[in-house]
Amino acid sequence: MAILEVRNVEKSFGKTNVLKGISFDLNEGDVLSIIGSSGSGKTTLLRCINFLETADSGKITVDGDVIFDSSSETKLSKKEQLEKQLSIGLVFQDFNLFPQYNILDNVTLALKVRARKRPDFRKNKKEILKEIEEKALSVIKKMGLEDKIYNYPCELSGGQKQRVSIARAMALEPKILFFDEPTSALDPELTGEILKVIRELAEDNMTMVIVTHEMTFAKEVSDYIVFMDNGIIAEEGKAEDVIGNPKTERLRAFLSKISD
Amino acid sequence: MSFSVVTTDLLVGFLENIKLFGVTLLLAIPLGLVIALGSMTKFTPLRKFTRGFVWAIRGTPLMLQLFVVLYVPGLVFDVQIPGNNPRFTAAVIAFVINYACYFSEIYRGGIEGIPKGQYEAGQVLGLSKSQTFFKVVLMQVVKHIVPPMGNEIMTLIKDTSLARVIAIGEVITKAESFSAKGIIWPLFYTGVFFLVFCGILTIVLGKIEKKLDYYKG
Fold first, then answer.
1. Is A190 domain-assigned?
2. I need a surface site. Which of A135, B91, B139, B167 has the fewest CB within 10 A?
3. Residue A109 and residue B115: Cβ atoms within 8 Å?
4. CA pair distance B187, B179, nearest whole angstrom
5. How far is CA B59 from CA B98, B157, B166, in A?
6. Residue A18 domain flag
7. How far is A94 from chain B (nearest CA, A)?
8. B chain contacts of residue A86, beta-carbon cutoff 8 Å
9. ipTM summary value
């Protein structure tokens, strides 16, 4: 069964139909890349799945759990929504790290704030905080930043910042991790280190959805590629087919523009 | 008239300035936050009302506001300003309202200046809106508003002299009572009190800024 099911998601801003009915499935452990030119609706789709925008209609299911359903009578409460939010993680294009916290605190903040709601928090405060710290340290280590834990975001390179933001998302142990153009704010020589990290996550069977302009990377790392154009999925399929053997004229035009 | 007699007398006056300064700061800082929230609310009537109020306060002289607070309650509503020192109370009310309006605009600028991405990052990490505001946004706002708040606070100590128009015995009033006797120098001497006080403020504010300077952004 698919871990992520997106059905007929539509979204308009005013009179502009940004998403005109998007549907796709993603299997556990797979990597899906969403490609397409600016304004095709890729980022809006990502934001709708992550609750940063509310879709006008459609249905989204994560691991059998309906996280959004426009036809449902009962709306999710804010609290329920926050709970469901945790099953998916998002890595932003421009990192959005918290500048006033060091790297370790950036990764542990949400976990610590949430832990306070646990009924046994007062009793086991020390153990709980220690556990959180250890969990954070292990993801930070995985991102190769163990010698930076007491540094502040302003002291890091763009690539390091992005690795912190991946660590921050991973620390919450999401079922699916989304990336919104994770290398677009980086210098070309720094994109490599982020792509390497994503590649390693893919090898660990992390389920991921990546909005990207890096075609070579998308082809190599993804199991599946979706090409969006003007609010619809214009073409989709296995990565090597979509990039290596595009069927639609639009995708061919897009790919040739990108490779220039 | 000896220097020490003048100094003592002026110090008594300057104590009034400092009192008015302290009470105003203490009350206007939180009230400013309330006004800032009012001027940012999505509830349109309240937002329009708050912004209109801020416009009226910022658009009229503080000196005039002092007269209004002192006289209007008695003349129009037949209400006495409470307390055993109604003139000082009136000065406090006028100063607190005036400064809270200026502070509210600084707060608003600080809060609106925080990038949307900070709120979104809080949300995708499962933090509620208030958790995001208090744990993520507030500290950044404080850092951003310290320099403009410092400016206003420096202005405040000097503005307290305006209270003399409703007969508060502050430092310049005291000095004028000397010039009425033909001694003019105490009037200029009052500047030293303000200079020293502002010097201390500058040091304190500089320390606060430095303390918040451990990160950028």
1. yes
2. B167
3. no
4. 7
5. 10, 20, 20
6. yes
7. 8
8. 126
9. 0.91
Kindly report the CATH number that applies to the domain delimited by B3-117+145-198.
1.10.3720.10
A109–B125 CB contact, under 8 Å: yes
A202 within some domain: yes
pLDDT tens per residue across span A184-222: 888 888 888 888 899 999 999 999 999 998 888 888 889
Q: Is A81 within 8 Å of chain B by CB? A: no
A100/B139 CB distance under 8 A: yes
List, as ranges, residues 128-157 from A with C-beta within 8 Å of B. 152-154
Is A100 at the interface with chain B, CB within 8 A?
A: yes
Task: State the angle between helix axes of A103-115 and A158-170 in degrees (0 to 180), rounded to the nearest 10.
Answer: 20
Asked if the Cβ–Cβ distance from A172 to B125 is below 8 Å, we say yes
Q: Indicate if the pLDDT at residue A229 is higher than 80.
A: yes
CATH at A232:
3.40.50.300
Q: Are strands A176-180 and A207-211 parallel, antiparallel or unpaired?
A: parallel
Cβ of B127 within 8 Å of Cβ of A110? The answer is: yes
For B125-162, the pLDDT digits (tens) are 999 888 999 999 999 999 999 999 999 999 999 999 99
Domain residue spans of chain B:
3-117+145-198
Residue A43: domain span: 2-87+174-259
Rounded Cα distance between B213 and B129, Å, is 26
Asked if residue B83 has pLDDT above 80, the reply is no
What is the three-class DSSP state of B105?
helix
Give the mean pLDDT of chain A. 90
Looking at the structure of chain A, the number of domains it has is: 1
